[in-house]
């Protein structure tokens, strides 16, 4: 398949998922987002955002879903905030949530690789979080986009699921099911929704495995100097939550901060 075919299939899947979330998960958010202190950050994000400093910063979140994290960034004192997602249905949800939350956040429906050059060099911070990197067919080109979006000295902050988890199926426990060096995408058809496991997403999607070497190398190859990297034993995906309680477990998530040097 061509990269555009993968992207279009995933766009259809996310629009289907948005409809499921509208009926359940988003309903609770519609009330909570109106609170002045609405925040989705856990202790890791609070610590790293405090180190980076959000006040007045221009922030873009790529693969922003319904924008809940970016709304939290704005409420924490950031300046211009722009969220980008390929799903028009999730962008609609994000705009609704931002309106109810009383914050000025711009949401753009676009593929990451297709972002217009008018955004180049406009941001102090690129923010990536839970379950974003796996939807990107070309991780190298992604970091090229990140680099062009950042102003000199700007930072990338990633807080993501650990790629080692792609070796396992959650239902099978710590039984190695796939190679860490897998190159072909995972294909999902009619899979349970990650928030409401009783709901089935009737669409085909493609998930791409990227090793830590590819992620860190993608930064280094595009002028992004690592200033922080840490791995953790807690789950942020809700998919591998059972692993967090195992006495012997793989890393479940990681945080990375890189600074644009040029």
What structural keywords apply?
single chain, 262 residues, alpha/beta, Rossmann fold, 7-stranded mixed sheet, two-stranded antiparallel ribbon, 9 strands
Structural description of this entry:
It is a single chain. The protein is of the alpha/beta class and 262 residues long. It has a single domain, classed as 3-Layer(aba) Sandwich (Rossmann fold), CATH 3.40.50.150. The protein is built from 7 helices and 9 strands. It has a 7-stranded mixed sheet, with helices on both faces. A two-stranded antiparallel sheet has the order 6-7. The protein is globular and about 45 Å long.
* C-alpha termini separation: 35 Å
The outline comes out as globular
Roughly how many Å is the radius of gyration?
18 Å
CATH topology: Rossmann fold
- Total number of helices: 7
- Total domain modules: 1
The proportion of residues in beta strands is 15-25%
How do the strands of the widest beta sheet line up side by side? Answer: 3-2-1-4-5-9-8
Oligomer status = single chain
Low-confidence stretches: none
Q: What's the CATH class label?
A: Alpha Beta
User: What structural class do the secondary elements suggest?
Assistant: alpha/beta
**In this structure, how is the largest beta sheet organized?**
7 strands, mixed
How much helicity do the residues have? Answer: 25-40%
Give the SSE string. HHHEHEHEEHEEEHEE
CATH superfamily: Vaccinia Virus protein VP39
Instruction: Please give the number of β-strands.
Output: 9
């Amino acid at each position: 398949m061509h990269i555009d075919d993968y992207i279009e299939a995933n766009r259809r899947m996310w629009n289907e998922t948005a409809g499921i979330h509208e009926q359940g998960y988003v309903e609770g958010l519609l009330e909570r987002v109106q609170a002045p202190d609405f925040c989705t950050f856990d202790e890791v994000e609070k610590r790293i955002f405090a180190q980076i400093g959000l006040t007045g910063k221009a922030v873009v979140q790529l693969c922003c879903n319904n924008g809940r994290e970016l709304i939290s960034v704005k409420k924490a004192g950031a300046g211009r905030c722009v969220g980008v997602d390929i799903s028009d249905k999730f962008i609609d949800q994000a705009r609704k949530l931002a309106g109810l939350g009383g914050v000025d956040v711009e949401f753009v429906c676009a593929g990451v690789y297709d972002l217009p050059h008018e955004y180049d060099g406009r941001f102090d911070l690129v923010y990536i979080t839970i379950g974003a990197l796996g939807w990107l067919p070309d991780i190298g080109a992604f970091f090229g986009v990140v680099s062009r979006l950042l102003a000199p000295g700007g930072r990338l902050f990633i807080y993501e699921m650990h790629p080692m988890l792609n070796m396992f199926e959650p239902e099978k426990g710590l039984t190695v099911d796939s190679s860490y060096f897998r190159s072909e995408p995972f294909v999902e058809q009619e899979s349970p929704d990650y928030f409401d496991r009783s709901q089935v997403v009737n669409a085909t999607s493609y998930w791409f495995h990227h090793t830590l070497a590819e992620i860190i190398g993608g930064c280094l190859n595009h002028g992004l100097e690592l200033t922080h990297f840490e791995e953790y034993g807690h789950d942020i995906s809700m998919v591998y939550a059972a692993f967090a309680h195992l006495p012997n477990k793989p890393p479940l998530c990681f945080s990375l901060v890189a600074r644009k040097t040029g």
